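Researcher: Re-running this chain for the archive, since the previous output was lost when a drive failed. Same request as before.
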Amino acid sequence: MIERGGQLVLQLCANVQQRTIRPHILTTIQPGSVVNTDEYGIYSQLPDWGLAHVTVNHGHREFARDDDGDGVNEVHVNTIEGVWSLLRSWLRPHRGISQRWLPLYLAFFQAMHNIRCRGFSLLEPMLTLLLISAPRNAG
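Model: Regenerated structure tokens:
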């Protein structure tokens, strides 16, 4: 899940069923938020969960839509599709990841994406994160 211009939240789920995704959605997305998805049926309960829901129908070759007539296609899933593309590209050189370590890879990718730095500019925020989360010696 990602808020446009906001934070990315990645959750590894055992399956793609409504009862599995519901807790993740409800703890991550504020009630009343507008959620953009494709037409996959798993999202049909979002309005019942207190979320506004709009879809694009990829099956009918609809990828973005301007609902309010202002010339901006505000209904789309391009933001999360871009994240999946980046994630696949980042994981590809590893040529397979153990299920045991996949949550750590996803957490690292999420943290680096949310820091919004690349290359050497990433070093300082990454060290800060490591130092903040390092266990302190009670000594």
